[in-house]
Amino acid sequence: MIEILDPTVAATTQPIAFAPRPTALAGKRVALIENTKYNSDRLLARIGDVLKSEYGVAEWTMYRKHNSGVPAHREIIDAIKASSDVVVAGIGD
Fold first, then answer.
1. Segment 40-51 mean pLDDT
2. In what order do the strands lie in the sheet with 59-64?
3. Which of the two ends of the chain, N or C, has the fewest CB atoms closer than 10 A to its terminal CB?
4. What does each C-alpha distance from 22 to 75, 85, 93 come to in angstroms?
5. How confident is the model at residue 67 (pLDDT cuts 50, 70, 90)?
6. pTM of structure
7. Are 35 and 65 in contact (CB under 8 A)?
8. How are beta strands 86-90 and 29-34 bridged, if at all?
9. Which residues of 24-59 are buried (b: 16+ CB within 10 A; e: fewer)?
10. DSSP-assigned beta bridge partners for residue 87
């Protein structure tokens, strides 16, 4: 007996609900999430410095994921929820 498999699926679309964006960054606390890849920490630190000097960000804090292949772990997410207004995630290489 031959079994024929159809690899096509019915495509469904689901709208993405984005978080509201701030109208300005002045006075905001920014969380920077780096993914452990080479230079991602340096790149994000520079972005944090630019956000502070040119956009009035109050402070920025760097968080480091366990590795680049996983989402941010629960401790990072909880810390960001408690202490940040804006998040920037970045990669390196």
1. 94
2. 59-64, 29-34, 86-90
3. N
4. 24, 9, 29
5. confident
6. 0.77
7. yes
8. parallel
9. ebeebebbbbbbeeeebbebbeeebeebeeeeebee
10. 31
